[in-house]
Every structure is written in C-alpha cells, then in structure tokens.
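Protocol step 4 of 6: structure prediction from sequence.
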Amino acid sequence: MFAPLLSSMASPSSVLAVVRAARPQLRSRADALAFALHASLCCEGFVLVAAGEAARAQGSAALVHEVGPEGWQDAEDEYTFRYTRDGAQSGLYQLSALTAGDKLLVDAAPPAPARVAHLELRRVVSCAARRGQR
C-alpha cells in the first residue's frame, strides 16, 4: 500500500522545508495542497521520476532517474506525479489528483498488483480569507 500518503510520518516542518526549497509557483489552494502531498512523499524517501504530462504518458514505466517537478501543474486542476523508491527494483508509484468543487480527489497507486488508495481532501481556507481579507 502507499502507506506514507495515508499516514505520513513526515513532520510539518520537513514538508514545509521541501516546499520552500522548491519555491513552486502556486496558482490556487489546490496547487498548494497537491504540492504539499508531493513534498510529503519526498520527505518519506520517494524519488520523483516524472511529473505532469510526462507522468501521465504510457511509456513512463521505464523512468528511473530523479527529476525536478517541472510541468507538475501543466493541466488545469489535474496533477500527476510518478515516484520510485529504492531504485527501479521497487517499481513506480503514481500520485494523481483532480479538483472537484472545494475538494481535491487523490489516487495513490503503488506498483501493481496492490490496491489504489483513494482520498478526498477539502481545500483549507486560510484564516485571512475567512475574515474577508486576502
């Protein structure tokens, strides 16, 4: 199973450090949540091998080299990341997310034949936005 996504042991400070180091350009709260999920997996030892369109491509099963997150938000309201762990021997893990209203629907797929984990996350509204401030 894709256990780190379901019950991550990554500390909030380590996830924030990965996000700050990457300095992603965020367009929305969904972008922020999707990238935070990616950062959490990086903290757990997953290695990104494809993002965005490259991760959705059928031929990406041969990917084994670490890449940056470029292209991770190339599709509007859809995010896909592919990871390896312990090199090519472990197979590819895929994290896919799609926005639906105020939710981010997440599928985490470990290498076959394991089950896909489905998560439904609500996008958090900041305190400033709740007070009517931006």
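Step 5 (inspection) to follow. The chain has one domain: 3-130.
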